[in-house]
Design brief:
The protein has 97 residues and is mostly helical. The chain contains three helices and no strands.
Length: 97
């Protein structure tokens, strides 16, 4: 469901793969909050932050700052898209990947 003009049927959507991995992880190991069928958002956000830091630790400070700003801007943009999808009763899966 990529928005690109050139389809690439052989390359999976990284967003979807990550989502599936998260679902599989919590399906197998459950939540630290011990609530069934619940994703522990604190644990998930911590894991994403650690991953981001690991991927960017060897970048210079200015580049790392730009990546952080881009990341925060993307989070805000996609959150808005998902909120708008919810308000219009459009499935969230139709929100941009």
């Amino acid at each position: 469901m990529s928005q690109t003009s050139e389809p690439n049927d052989e390359r999976p959507c990284l967003h979807c793969l990550i989502g599936d991995l998260i679902d599989d992880f919590y399906g197998e190991f459950g939540s630290l909050a011990e609530k069934p069928d619940t994703i522990d958002t604190n644990e998930l956000l911590s894991a994403l932050a650690k991953t981001f830091a690991e991927l960017t630790y060897d970048s210079d400070a200015a580049q790392r700052q730009r990546m952080m700003e881009d990341f925060l801007r993307d989070v805000s943009k996609f959150e808005t898209e998902f909120r708008e999808a919810q308000l219009t009763d459009t499935p969230a899966s139709n929100a941009r990947h």
